[in-house]
């Protein structure tokens, strides 16, 4: 169980996340939605402790995550894997090595620096790549892959951390619709293995289709927490200040895409 209690982050006079409290049972797939600047990315970064809270507590299975330091904090970041919109791959390295980077926190410092991976770890990496239909690209440089392929490599790397939770920060924001579906299918598959997934999303149809639960932030505050079916037109207007059709048009215009049809509720 992941428990978030009164989680707050201030940057000077600006409050990015304001008193958010959530309880997330193990194995849920949770979509986090809201306008740009609503605090979605800051919240995920606090859960991973890439950003420290100004106030509040994060607990996981009874452990106070906000109190962790040094090795205990590094261990938490291994169990709570992060996937970014920008992929964060080492472009000049081959795909297999990028995936094996997910094992570094589990290895002694010297072997980590020298990237001395075992045969078992290489087999794990190849199995992860095969799962995401990328085994044939194992020896290619990461820079030769498409955006969708690179994001799947990032998911495979996260899997090698053997995480309990995956946090995905706008993982499909820069992808076309086909690759977006492939990446979301990959995340849903990981979730079905019992791993809790929190994913920041702009596309409401995607959130409804893939997530068991949706939470929404507005100006850093939690304004919705419920099942996808409960995300009604009125709720969407409260979250975004516009109708779902207007929001879809604005989002599509921002990326030069055709808006997806909203799901009526």
TrEMBL record:
SMART domains: AAA. Keywords: ATP-binding, Cell membrane, Membrane, Nucleotide-binding, Translocase, Transport. It comes from the Bacteria. GO terms for molecular function: ATP binding. Residues 2-244 form the ABC transporter domain. Pfam families: ABC_tran (PF00005). InterPro entries: AAA+_ATPase, ABC_transporter-like_ATP-bd, ABC_transporter-like_CS, ABC_transpr_PhnC, MetN_ABC_transporter-like, P-loop_NTPase. PANTHER family: AMINO ACID IMPORT ATP-BINDING PROTEIN (PTHR43166), PHOSPHONATES IMPORT ATP-BINDING PROTEIN PHNC (PTHR43166:SF6). This is Phosphonate ABC transporter ATP-binding protein. It comes from Neoroseomonas terrae.
